Description:
Elements: H1 7-29, E1 37-42, H2 52-57, E2 61-66, E3 70-75, E4 79-85, E5 90-96, E6 100-105, E7 110-113
Antiparallel strand pairs: 1-2, 1-6, 3-4, 4-5, 6-7
Amino acid sequence: MSRGIDYGNLMHRAMRGLIREVLEGVRENGLPGDHHFFITFDTAHPDVEIADWLSDRYPGEMTVVMQHWFDNLDVGDEGFAVTLNFGDAPEPLYIPYDAIKTFVDPSVEFGLRFETQDEDDDQPTPPNGPRGIDERPAAAEKKPDGPKEADVVRLDSFRK
């Protein structure tokens, strides 16, 4: 019998589904208005596919921008493929959804942050709130390495 409801992983799965749905809309209709995305992902994830020179240059994580020029966007169940321009050199990428660390659309002050958690983590719920809830706003910034609790960004901080 299960020890409890794993809200952190359930929320991560729902947030990854949101990213997939957004990317499917972009694939079908392009980026509307001023929308653009900063996507930070784990370059060491076993299913990430990037050029060797990119993985050498960004051995832990990398942030890509989908804005003015991107091509061959293909959205699948487990991840997405896209060709992006790196200094006038188009490069194909494949990014699994579970390799994504942050997904930010600064045009509407929307952001999601995913932080990993050890499978056998038996830590109790923190006294400041339920596990998986992070009161801080998301940002496309580098986080310290190491296992973390799952974080969900509260959108209340972005409301005007």
